[in-house]
Amino acid sequence: MKHPFQIGDTQVYRKTVTAADFARFDDGLVHAVCSTFSLAQAAEWAGRLFVLEMKEKDEEGIGTFLTINHKSPAFEGDIIEISAKLKSQEGNSVICSFEARVGDRLVADGETGQKILKKDKLARVLAPTK
């Protein structure tokens, strides 16, 4: 595993909110703003930007945890900027803190964890058991 980063380095992902990001469940639309689930997925992607540059060709990242504090709404058409900051990297574990903002307004913050594993090991771990 390569490590071209220093603790405190950041990666940024920008996402435009669409109707596909709205909070929906089996009983229908909850509200027409970006859901916590969609924010969590974007936050995990922002942290994955580190993993993509760290992993070797025979390795892959897998999420280990996610904490998210949803602070304010993001509306359809808003551009959310998710800044992931490398908090720690020990062995194959990568932990990032993140902030999601629309302009100056904080939409969410939290942390993500990922591990980088050999693809063959990951395939064994994720293989269905009978």
Any chance you could write out the topology, listing elements then pairs?
Blueprint: E1 10-16, E2 22-25, E3 28-34, H1 36-54, E4 59-70, E5 79-90, E6 93-102, E7 105-118, H2 119-126
Antiparallel strand pairs: 1-5, 2-3, 4-7, 5-6, 6-7
Task: Give a short overview.
InterPro entries: FlK (IPR025540), FlK-like_dom (IPR054485), HotDog_dom_sf (IPR029069). This protein has a single domain, classed as Thiol Ester Dehydrase, Chain A, CATH 3.10.129.10.
Would you mind describing this structure in some detail?
This protein is an alpha+beta fold. The protein has one domain (10-126): Hotdog Thioesterase (Thiol Ester Dehydrase, Chain A, Roll), CATH 3.10.129. The chain is built from two helices and seven strands. It has helices spanning 36-54, 119-126; strands at residues 10-16, 22-25, 28-34, 59-70, 79-90, 93-102, 105-118. It has a five-stranded antiparallel beta sheet. A two-stranded antiparallel ribbon has the order 2-3. Strand 5 and strand 6 (93-102) form a beta hairpin. The model has no long low-confidence stretch (mean pLDDT 93).
Strand content: over 45%
Main beta sheet strand tally, sense and closure? 5 strands, antiparallel
Structural class: alpha+beta
Rg of Cα set: 16 Å
CATH superfamily: Hotdog Thioesterase
Helix content: 10-25%
Topology-level CATH name: Thiol Ester Dehydrase, Chain A
Q: Tally the structural domains.
A: 1
Report the end-to-end length measured between terminal Cα atoms.
33 Å
Count of β-strands = 7
Widest β-sheet, arrangement of strands: 1-5-6-7-4
Q: Runs with pLDDT <50, length 5+? A: none
User: What number is the mean pLDDT?
Assistant: 93
CATH class: Alpha Beta
How many helical elements?
2
